[in-house]
């Protein structure tokens, strides 16, 4: 019933829109077709559009509508670092992932708008470009502007794609026999007797009966497909005239999964989106628009964490499916027990298990049921544009209001099931099942359970007066005065995230030669105490079009050269984690070290924090310069920026500024206030260079992009005994760990005496073959005080991010290629794949383990059934480079000549074939391409066609 209502509602909205548009068009049939709605030469920036030639820096734009003609993709921000400078893949200028995403001016999810819906994406990197958006925009803004209808004949574009995902690489784990042998070795290293006999290991190695002697491979073709499909269809309908224009996008895609067993065979994702944008001119002075979007997203999943289990479940543990044929036909009791199961697979197998594993992920996929995650998003925004030239020539007013709803929940069938543990015997040389032990019972309630419900409401508004004038044909003045804000209500969140600000933008240029731009925002935050909740954020930009000076006006080399510089101070509350840090907090808790009377553990009153009334906004102080140039008859174009900024007054509880007794660990108590104490600093540059050349009939365009940034802690609340451990002066993304000196020998272990020459490790007892670390402070002890900066982690993107895009067009063929790179970052080989100890599963890395005979060539510590805490510390032993260059996309497009379509109702046909994530060039390619506890990385091969009617 719910879905019927949704369909009826959508149909009604569509019918109403169609009727509205038809009426509007009828009243304006004789009006001329306007070309002013092109938008290609205008760039959407904060609350206004400006000609691209007037951008003064800190802003980059991608024309998505044209890009999609040669590079079809399905995620709005897919590989954007390959087109614009300053975007690292997950941050702007290395500022972190808290950048603000606005879709048509409203805070929304970037993954909820399909690239086919997008007109352009603007990256506002510089502080001067984001000042009007207020506090929550201080880490940068990504503006996504959706398409709008254009005056002209009705147009229908239909696009259909289908493609296959192919796994790049699977983790490599040892088989049962090798695992058992090495596990025995680990036990021997620990002074224990071997667990597995030579006969056991032999039986597991032969593979003659994998049900009695299992060799479980989670990545086998028995369980996984070689490829899986995604199919998509999108229809775009647009048209209108000067009075009314409309754009509609209806898209649907379905995607299956890699699994070929149990409920996993039915895993799928499907998404339906409907967008409608309407622009209507009520008269010559008043214009309005209405945008609406609905997205229906469903994911069906089998029960169980398959990929997580694949990283921990040992290969010899059990056989997930056991054939019934191993049970003697005359064994009435065992057959009766098995036949009582509700989960006989394919009529031939029963679910295997053991007393230690009464459930397992394979049985989960067959018998535990399935779940369906459902997400619904409904978005609506509307606006008015009044021309107030009757009051003052050049004056106008704009207003926008938006309401969004997002809900999600999970529906599931949760079944319990029985597994059966066989006991094997050999009769006349043949393996048979002797006895069967049942664990658990089969239960299917038939009830559908609801869980994980979440909802979010977003309300946004803006109102602004705009003024534009020109004096004596040389002085261009524009100004914007605005008030804007948004608030989100989220389930499970007490205080609603909010943003409220007023702003003033004044721009001036003299003959498009000299530019000045002033922006001021008044921001407000409820995260601060009374008296500190309001602040002003100023920004100033100066620009100079050098090309218009006499000494360059006739230059055959320089076609354009514009320089600009900006200085800004932005006040932000993004880095204030809690709305109530300025308030004291007193709680009660059970179980202090003492009670109010002997022998009792009573509740204690604990001061969690004291009042911090002096907290203020965190300030982003920034200076940046920008250069835009076109050279050699626009053969080469360059857009480059340099920036330096600081985040001052980051809020911490500065424990080093107060006596130690102000802060107590248990019961948790603190009398130290929070303060604006820490500072961060960033500097770097980005550059985008394009080369456009026509060679005979071949049009070539090459884009080269680079972004480099350095982010450091410039001030920290810290009191380390050793200067090398100070975080101040070190990268924000520093990886801290120990310096490894190879493996201990027996003599070195014997010599440990706690002196500087032979320091004593504190991470557990060590033996020969364990990792030896450097005693950095020469105190005779190996501990946390010996950790040093090992390198940058690149958490906000690699220090150097590069991109290259190439377009070659010959006749009706277009070849596009995109490459992206990241350089200068490191990572630690950790997790269960690399840090193998105890009862863990063994990966192929342990083949290089230390033994007495391989001490000189070993690449891995000795094996152990203990915790291995000494070996598995962050250290440069586990460090590796994440430097990489990826061939992210190649697409070949063929446009059918329009001359061939003149007699048909079809106006355009384009067909294309593409591949994504095709190649990684890296020293550590195997590590970078391997996912351990999640689904594998994939290459995607796509075939598509676009038809215009």
UniProtKB/TrEMBL annotation:
<dbReference type="InterPro" id="IPR037066">
    <property type="entry name" value="Plug_dom_sf"/>
</dbReference>
<feature type="signal peptide">
    <location>
        <begin position="1"/>
        <end position="24"/>
    </location>
</feature>
<protein>
    <submittedName>
        <fullName>TonB-linked outer membrane protein, SusC/RagA family</fullName>
    </submittedName>
</protein>
<dbReference type="Pfam" id="PF07715">
    <property type="entry name" value="Plug"/>
</dbReference>
<dbReference type="InterPro" id="IPR023996">
    <property type="entry name" value="TonB-dep_OMP_SusC/RagA"/>
</dbReference>
<dbReference type="InterPro" id="IPR023997">
    <property type="entry name" value="TonB-dep_OMP_SusC/RagA_CS"/>
</dbReference>
<dbReference type="InterPro" id="IPR012910">
    <property type="entry name" value="Plug_dom"/>
</dbReference>
<feature type="domain" description="TonB-dependent receptor plug">
    <location>
        <begin position="77"/>
        <end position="141"/>
    </location>
</feature>
<keyword id="KW-0732">Signal</keyword>
